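Section 5: illustrative case.
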């Protein structure tokens, strides 16, 4: 096979503010929805932050970012994806004036990246809706959040327009349908929400996302602004035409959000879906015009695939990263039951590129596993994570195939380039990074950083622009 990653390919890694920063009330920061989810997206929320919420400390990136950025630079990162915690900038989300200390932190963080020639790739909203917006307005169910988001976006674009050239609007925007509180700050319990409620909230986010693109293009003509989609790849379980049609319909749960971002309007297939499910969306007269502000590129997360069938007795349920489907008998799974399907990444890249003819960016991909810290024989400690290397190598080889297929790919940022608190379960034992962080689920640990075997492996991949994948 050929390895032809393009010149200037943006190799790097990704984290989210709420999973790494900690310092959850420091320097004027307000609470976010994550501060009351001690067991992660799939857990029960609390009224106030509790000590068992690992995200309150995270990996203390807020105080240790210089140390971590230096390690990323040692690996050769060209790009570092992180997010801005909205409640660091506007503690309640609806203030008129921003918190200067919060703005200064990200100034310093982006400066530290540029010190090593690393471009920041910044997610504006990564499951970090200010908690007060959830309490006062029921999150993105309220149209008022569009105005508050616009104010937030204008502030950060003006502040960082000379420091950040790559932006993402909402992380995994389609996840608001699956996890309305974590993704959309919707305080009403999911079981009490109708599909109209969920798609109305999604509509508000889509309008806000398009508005951010419009503002960004006005204030930062040279910047690239993309959407971020929860990449759920689904195959028909059998060649039964009914399974194929069921897969087509399920695919549209994901593609709808990319369609609006890339094409600037609601796709016609949603007319039937809304009619069949008695979904009614309230649109303001200006919404159609705002949605025409389309993205410069499409980014997405990819961890696994699943199957769809009209005959549920044929297979057991499976899932991963908010996706649910049926188990593929040809695919193995991770320790957490997530199907491992490298070829699905090539398929997804081709599907998106064939559909939109826009540059793509893989901004999340990785393996969560239990790592063991051992003596490295040189007076220090390390993790021998050959299983992670195997996972990443197999996926990156399929990325190379997709590039050979003709897909235009901007870059690749593997998820959790340094160990972070899991979004789905709030565990630290589920580790993704090239760098081990000495902190445990009971809160113990030194927070010291240790390089894993995958650290040097990824360093070589970046240094050779992917060519070492053929030998590693």
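Designed sequence:
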């Amino acid at each position: 096979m050929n390895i032809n990653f393009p010149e200037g390919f943006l190799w790097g890694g990704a984290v989210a503010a709420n999973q790494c920063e900690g310092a959850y009330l420091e320097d004027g920061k307000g609470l976010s929805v994550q501060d009351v989810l001690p067991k992660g997206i799939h857990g029960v929320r609390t009224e106030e932050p509790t000590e068992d919420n690992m995200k309150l400390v995270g990996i203390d990136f807020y105080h240790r970012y210089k140390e971590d950025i230096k390690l990323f630079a040692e690996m050769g990162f060209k790009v570092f994806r992180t997010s801005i915690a909205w409640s660091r900038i506007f503690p309640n989300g609806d203030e008129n004036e921003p918190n200067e200390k919060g703005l200064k932190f990200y100034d310093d963080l982006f400066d530290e990246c540029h010190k090593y020639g690393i471009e920041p790739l910044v997610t504006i909203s990564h499951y970090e809706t200010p908690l007060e917006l959830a309490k006062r307005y029921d999150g993105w169910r309220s149209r008022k959040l569009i105005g508050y988001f616009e104010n937030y976006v204008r502030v950060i674009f003006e502040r960082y327009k000379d420091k950040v050239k790559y932006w993402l609007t909402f992380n995994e925007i389609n996840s608001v349908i699956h996890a309305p509180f974590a993704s959309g700050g919707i305080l009403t319990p999911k079981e009490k929400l109708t599909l109209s409620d969920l798609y109305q909230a999604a509509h508000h986010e889509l309008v806000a996302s398009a508005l951010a693109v419009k503002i960004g293009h006005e204030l930062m003509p040279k910047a690239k602004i993309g959407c971020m989609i929860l990449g759920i790849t689904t195959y028909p379980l059998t060649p039964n035409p009914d399974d194929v049609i069921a897969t087509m319909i399920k695919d549209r749960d994901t593609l709808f959000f990319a369609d609006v971002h890339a094409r600037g309007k609601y796709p016609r297939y949603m007319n039937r879906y809304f009619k069949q499910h008695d979904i009614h969306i309230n649109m303001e007269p200006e919404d159609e015009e705002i949605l025409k502000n389309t993205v410069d590129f499409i980014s997405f997360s990819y961890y696994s695939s699943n199957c769809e069938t009209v005959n549920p007795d044929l297979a057991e349920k499976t899932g991963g990263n908010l996706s649910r489907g049926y188990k593929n008998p040809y695919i193995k799974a991770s320790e957490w039951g997530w199907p491992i399907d490298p070829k699905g990444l090539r398929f997804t890249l081709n599907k998106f590129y064939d559909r939109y003819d826009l540059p793509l960016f893989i901004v999340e991909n990785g393996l969560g596993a239990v790592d063991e810290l051992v003596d490295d024989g040189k007076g220090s400690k390390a993790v021998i994570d050959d299983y992670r290397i195997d996972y990443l190598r197999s996926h990156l080889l399929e990325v190379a195939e997709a590039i050979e297929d003709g897909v235009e790919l901007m870059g690749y940022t593997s998820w959790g380039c340094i160990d972070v608190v899991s979004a789905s379960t709030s565990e630290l034992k589920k580790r993704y990074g090239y760098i081990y962080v000495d902190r445990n689920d009971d809160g113990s640990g030194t927070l010291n950083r240790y390089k894993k075997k995958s650290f040097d492996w990824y360093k070589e991949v970046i240094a050779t622009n992917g060519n070492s994948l053929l030998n590693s």
